Amino acid sequence: MSDVVLACEGLTRRFGGLVAVSNVSLQWRLDEIHAVIGTNGAGKSTLINMLSGEIAASDGRIVLRGEDVTRWSQPRRARAGIGRSYQRTTIFPEFSVFENARLCAQAARARPWALWEAAHTCPHASAVARDALASAGLAELADRPAGSLSHGGKRQLEIAMCLATQPQVLLLDEPLAGMGAEETDRMLGLLEGLKAKHAVLLVEHDMDAVFRVADRITVMVNGEVIASDTPARIRDNAQVRIAYLGDH
Predict the structure, then answer these.
(1) What is the pLDDT of residues 141-189, one digit of tens each?
(2) 1-81+169-182+199-248 — its CATH code?
(3) Judging by beta carbons within 10 Å of its beta carbon (0-12, 13-18, 19+), is residue 160 exposed, middle or buried?
(4) Over the stretch 196-223, which tens digit does the pLDDT of each residue have?
């Protein structure tokens, strides 16, 4: 069985009297794309925000490679190997594609003592950035202004920026949003190629894409997990069909 890289146990988040995520226990493994689906308000983004450290858990714990990181800050988790992308594009459009990736590589390995060196001359950050762009299929566009990329290209760049931090886990929040069929195919191919070296959490509303690429699917309703299984079993789950896929 694949190695567990990231896990949460009894994870809960309350906002006053609202329970956004309730007692969620899940695992993300190497060589597996684990999709989390659910309607708006199901708790998917809150779950990602807790795993990445952007909001604190009310209860439960988060474990990265066997180490409890529940109380760690977001920057510390990022340096330890938890990378994420966002629903909205977060690139620096005026910088080149390469500079976007290099800045992320540099941030992941700060060198405050190197006061006499220009940041852009760091060979390690440059090498990591080029590897990340190659993995994301953007090596040939490294010198292009990031803002000139297509929508799909910008989403690929966000993946490359995440890879430049050298993560063990990729938390991807709707990376296919707004894409056409050709761009979706390209992104799904990219995700398939990344899972061999990363545990992947995928939050996505495109159900056709989810069932094409996911190895495991977790379904959330009102902050709770109602099913977590293989795509075939999720598709045949009567409770899931009623609650999310629309069958009656």
Answers:
(1) 999 999 999 999 999 999 999 999 999 999 999 999 888 899 999 999 9
(2) 3.40.50.300
(3) buried
(4) 999 999 999 899 999 999 999 999 999 9
